[in-house]
Design goal:
The protein has one domain. The protein has 97 residues and is mainly α. The protein contains three helices and no strands. 1% of the residues are buried. The two termini are 40 Å apart. Helix 1 runs antiparallel to helix 2. Helices cover 72% and strands 0% of the residues.
């Protein structure tokens, strides 16, 4: 029973994270849509354009994360595992710390 309640908690938390992430993407998209002020100086305009690009990249990364979380949520029988970019190799396993 405890395992089932933990599973439902994880599913609820994942859904809440997905919903919050979708709200964040909507905010980022609204920031991207806002027109630039034509009265801005060149430097301020350049910074505003860079900020819009950062919003775009952040929105993309969040969307990729949402996609992964939704896939995890739809596959409810699978265990949730931590993703790692690098697994220890032979040398790292035996290296002194």
């Amino acid at each position: 029973m405890e395992k089932e309640s933990n599973k439902s908690y994880v599913q609820r938390a994942l859904q809440e994270l997905i919903d919050s992430s979708k709200e964040a993407v909507a905010i980022l998209i609204n920031d991207i849509k806002k027109p630039l002020d034509p009265e801005l100086s060149d430097e301020k305009r350049r910074n505003a354009i860079k900020a819009k690009k950062e919003c775009f990249v952040d929105a993309q990364e969040i969307l990729i994360g949402i996609s992964k979380l939704e896939a995890q949520l739809s596959n409810s029988d699978a265990e949730f595992k931590e993703e790692r970019d690098f697994e220890k190799g032979f040398a790292e396993k035996w290296a002194k710390r």
